[in-house]
């Protein structure tokens, strides 16, 4: 096994460069101006986002990950213990990438006799469906060459070794994230020069190196420990843990093997995994997929390079950092029923909005204006328990979104009057006495869950929320007002069912959307193990179950920060008719796409911009993320508030469902 020459990760340079760009380092704040200041119309971005990817000249070791974040990888499989490892990791909520050799599959061609392959075959060959099972369990498969061939120095079989294996893998990869690691971590300038311009394998992501647990020649590496020193798995675990920071500050790519590198025997590899991974989790480490590494991004993405300020409205410089009832009220809405989204929020003078515009291939936001003086600070909406409940939805089935917010004695609304050319009602009308302080809704774990959503399919937005007993809804009446409270889900999502759900990282994440393609709004909420959902059965919600495969869980680091759990939303990102679940993780924007039966493992749509390391981790910024179609195409776009205003960018064409 050739000894690698470690090279520093180029994506780390991306982060350093990021610190010099406007998106990451903004000018010093100006003095606060009145909220009603109207900035000039701002620029937008090109509507078509790039989605390029290519092999890197230098190996990618994961140094760009935040402290305490690890990406787990396995080499040289599949082997006897691969599925046992994969299933164990799934129970722990740990994603892994298995870098596989095609020579282990049934029907594999004879090993390339003209190259440097060293594939160790055992009596068992594995069916191609083996890869499908790994992916079903929430993992990824990556290219480790067809015959475990060393490609250092660009031997003549290099392109064959990468191409033959990748053709098999592409039949199983769902998310278009195509990863590569060379055997022995062997990489050279000559190899890169050979493959970089190849239209097929030159677009792989990699080569993926490692930082943990150390050089393969050392005992703390599983290759050195299990193969060279012949320690037990328990002894190897102890040795490896001594080289990991006990304070949870180590970061990078972990390289293990799901079979011993020069043998098919795998029991020690299985045992090592079952000891090492729980020990690392107990130390506080978070495991993330490889596309959390800055720069390792598939073609389905938001265009990070085009991220720019679309409006200075809603920025700190014009006073929107004063209260959460201001910045926490930002929402996309279609106020005029024309398919063009507005971005709106509740300022001190009322509800302020900017509209999207399109000029050729460019899009952006117009100047802001106050749409209604209702819900102003002067009217008593400055406290978070009132002002931060601002909601948009079509109450009267006229195609225009109306506006509601909770107050001490109930929920008040103003209706859109665009059809009559007036705009909005200026004086709010009480639509229900329910959800008031006196009826038990003054605590954030309840009022923070209020949503306008059409749960009964009559095209009128109803009002739903999470009470101590479960999900309750008040249906919109044809002549105005909400009807009496009805229990829609009595046996889950309430405090009475699980007292842990009082924590805001669960209680306020209530989401509604059509996750199964039947045109009815279903309900989802984050819990300690991930996102749980219940189908809409007409008049009630059905049984809840885990939809996210333990992603978005507490172990996945979604409990500690409002800027993460506060950004969770159901939105049809890929235009297939099913709502997907997205959020802004510490490492960037992630989305888990619905297939109608579950959310598939999330993938990163950004991993440099909109991450905590790039400066988006404050609650008043990260939790304001909104995803929607700003240019009315099949691709979703993203906007997030920051000090200078609201930053937006378009999604790549690869985001559209095919």
Which helices and strands appear, and what pairs or packs with what?
Blueprint: H1 10-18, E1 45-46, E2 69-77, H2 82-91, E3 96-100, H3 129-136, E4 140-143, H4 158-170, H5 189-195, H6 222-229, H7 233-241, E5 252-257, H8 267-282, E6 286-287, E7 308-311, H9 324-327, E8 331-333, E9 342-347, E10 350-359, E11 362-365, E12 369-372, H10 384-387, E13 391-393, E14 402-407, E15 410-414, E16 416-417, E17 423-424, E18 429-432, H11 444-447, E19 451-453, E20 462-467, E21 470-476, E22 482-489, H12 504-507, E23 511-513, E24 522-527, E25 530-534, E26 545-546, H13 562-565, E27 569-571, E28 580-585, E29 588-592, E30 603-604, H14 612-616, H15 619-622, E31 626-628, E32 637-642, E33 645-650
Parallel strand pairs: 2-3, 2-5, 2-6, 3-4
Antiparallel strand pairs: 1-11, 7-33, 8-9, 9-10, 10-11, 10-12, 13-14, 14-15, 15-18, 16-17, 19-20, 20-21, 21-22, 23-24, 24-25, 25-26, 27-28, 28-29, 29-30, 31-32, 32-33
Helix pairs in contact: 2-8, 7-8
